[in-house]
Structure formats: structure tokens, C-alpha cells
């Protein structure tokens, strides 16, 4: 069986470089030319290894969710109560969104903030991903209501939307230059709103 030439680049390292570009400049703000330059590969190699720009972005988002963005799912899964989980999410967001080792904020929140109609499908995919995160928040609140850890009348949807809004706002504040201490203070104020 004939085989093609082996890749002459580190795929994981190239993917990390693509992640940094999409994270910093967004989906539309990142060109294929910039990607190939930063990834250290030519366009045919990019298309051969990753598919088109959209396929590369999809892989970046998936990898981001398992690495930089995994703290949300991990906190929701590991903590005993919704309150502990949300407090951890906000605390870890303050650190993650301001980490100088990578672009500020959250890639999933900011990469498709402004896209032209031709890329609506990409924006819709990111919107759906954020909605699924919101569903995870709501499910944790509902579980605590069912277990009696929160009052029976707690509006699980509203509480989930509130904390998702705080997380999204923290991402934007980090992109605007807020420090980890600034965001930790926001997290503390947000947790003071938790139902008694």
C-alpha cells in the first residue's frame, strides 16, 4: 500500500499556535495566511492535516474545551453542591482568563463575537456551545433544589443565566485588561447573591 510523505511538522504544536491566533483575533480576524505562518506550515499542509479553516477552528474549539476551558465542566462535576461548583468556576475563571501565558478571556466566548453573515454558522456553533454550558449550570442548580440544598422556589434557569452572564462578563473584562484580583472581587460579589 502506497503511503504519502510523513508530516514534517509537530501537529500538536501547530494546533496550539492556531488556538492562540483564533483566541487572540477571533475566527474572522484570523486568516489562513496568518495561520500557516504561525503554525510553520504551508497551505497545502494545513488543508491536508486539518481540512479547511472551519475544520481547523472546530478542532481548536474541541481541544480548547479539553484543556484551557475544561475547568468549568470539572468544577460542575467534582464539587458536592452547586454553590461550591459555581464559586470554583468563578474563582478559576478569574485565574484562567488573566493568565499571561495565553490570550485573555475565553476563546468560546470571544472568538465569534463579530462575524459577517457568511460565517453565521460558526457563530451559531459557538452560541450552541455556550447554551450547553448554561444547561450544565441549570442542571446543577436543579439538582440542589431537588436535594433540598436550595429553596424549592429557586428559579434554576434565572440563577444559571445570572452566573453564566458573570462568567461571560469576566471574560470580556479580562480582555479589557482587568486583573485576576479584579475578577476575584467580582466572583466574591456574585457569590454573595447566592440564594440563602
TrEMBL record:
Q: Name one Pfam family in it.
A: TetR_N
Identify the keywords attached in UniProt to this record, alphabetized: DNA-binding, Transcription, Transcription regulation
Q: Where are the transmembrane segments?
A: none
Listed InterPro entries: DNA-bd_HTH_TetR-type_CS (IPR023772), Homeodomain-like_sf (IPR009057), HTH_TetR (IPR001647), Tet_transcr_reg_TetR-rel_C_sf (IPR036271), TetR_C (IPR011075)
* PROSITE patterns membership: HTH_TETR_1 (PS01081), HTH_TETR_2 (PS50977)
Q: Is rRNA-binding there in the keyword field?
A: no
For the keyword Transcription, the answer is: yes
Signal peptide segment: none
**Chain ranges of the HTH tetR-type domain:** 8-68
Task: Report which superkingdom the organism of origin falls in.
Answer: Bacteria
DNA-binding region boundaries: 31-50
Identify this protein by name. Answer: TetR/AcrR family transcriptional regulator
Q: What is the lineage of its organism?
A: Bacteria, Bacillati, Actinomycetota, Actinomycetes, Kitasatosporales
Amino acid at each position: 500500500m502506497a503511503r504519502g510523505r510523513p508530516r514534517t511538522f509537530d501537529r500538536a504544536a501547530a494546533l496550539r499556535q492556531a488556538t492562540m491566533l483564533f483566541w487572540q483575533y477571533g475566527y474572522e480576524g484570523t486568516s489562513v495566511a496568518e495561520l500557516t505562518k504561525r503554525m510553520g506550515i504551508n497551505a497545502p499542509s494545513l488543508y491536508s492535516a486539518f481540512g479547511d479553516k472551519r475544520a481547523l477552528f472546530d478542532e481548536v474549539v474541541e481541544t480548547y474545551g479539553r484543556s484551557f476551558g475544561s475547568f468549568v465542566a470539572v468544577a460542575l462535576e467534582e464539587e458536592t453542591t452547586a454553590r461550591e461548583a459555581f464559586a470554583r468556576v468563578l474563582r478559576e475563571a478569574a485565574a484562567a482568563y488573566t493568565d499571561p501565558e495565553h490570550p485573555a478571556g475565553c476563546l468560546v466566548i470571544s472568538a465569534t463575537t463579530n462575524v459577517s453573515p457568511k460565517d453565521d454558522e460558526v457563530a451559531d456553533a459557538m452560541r450552541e456551545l455556550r447554551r450547553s454550558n448554561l444547561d450544565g449550570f441549570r442542571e446543577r442548580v436543579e439538582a440542589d433544589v431537588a436535594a433540598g440544598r436550595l429553596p424549592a422556589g429557586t428559579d434554576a434557569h434565572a440563577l444559571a443565566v445570572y452566573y453564566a452572564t458573570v462568567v461571560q462578563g469576566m471574560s470580556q473584562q479580562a480582555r479589557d485588561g482587568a486583573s485576576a484580583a479584579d475578577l476575584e472581587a467580582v466572583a466574591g460579589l456574585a457569590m454573595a447573591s447566592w440564594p440563602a
